């Protein structure tokens, strides 16, 4: 059977630094794969290489339902259903919230006008992003709602695989709970999720499997309960 999503020998260097180093893994349809690792271990770069936003790999392959996508354009990859959020709140600050969503819907979904607005409303309701914020400039939103807007923008593109890069960073307890519940809900709707997160209770609480990276190389991959007891993982997190 064709694997759902496969990364084969993926590498990316910046000068002499191997940010992602010969990484291979398979993701199963419907799972939440958590991704952990120290700062600079290549987590965000991995998402860049998968989505081509903003750049692809030096070598290796990304295969979605049997089709190699690493030579496709970023917008094509999004259209195929692989959509990311960003570590920092990446909204168009001068645009209204709804225009932020509509730009993505138009680019990825090819929808215009009333159809695009309907999609923006639906995604807002799914995420719980208040529709009465739609006409506020995105820059005026508090960080929590900017995060919600970023997730709404991703959901409006109807992802098959949703890549979330530290959705809970700089949030407080109740807000982290909201992220937890939202990830579970999106997964229950059928989205496969790759989740980068530093808040370990959140990461271990929602993930079916964990991947741990160190210097661009996987040091552990498996069931959460096994990975968190792995001596190499404990060492990577507690320091040498
Ligand atoms: P993480 O998300 O795990 O914290 P990153 O993937 O952002 O780590 O970065 C991995 C390594 O690659 C780091 O050493 C970082 O400094 C480097 N890096 C990431 N992006 C770039 C870039 N655009 N140019 C140069 N170096 C980069
Ligand atoms: Mg990062």
Automatic annotation (TrEMBL):
Q: Per the database record, which ranges form the ABC transporter domain?
A: 5-240
Regions crossing the membrane: none
Keyword ATP-binding assigned to the entry: answer is yes
Keyword presence, ATP-binding: yes
Task: Report keywords, A-Z.
Answer: ATP-binding, Nucleotide-binding, Transport
The UniProt entry, under Pfam families, shows: ABC_tran (PF00005)
Q: Record's InterPro entries?
A: AAA+_ATPase, ABC_AA/LPS_Transport, ABC_transporter-like_ATP-bd, P-loop_NTPase
Gene3D superfamilies membership:
P-loop containing nucleotide triphosphate hydrolases (3.40.50.300)
One example GO MF annotation: ATP binding
Top-level taxonomic group? Bacteria
For this entry, the protein name equals ATP-binding cassette domain-containing protein
Q: Which organism is it from?
A: Hoeflea poritis
Q: Lineage of the native species?
A: Bacteria, Pseudomonadati, Pseudomonadota, Alphaproteobacteria, Hyphomicrobiales
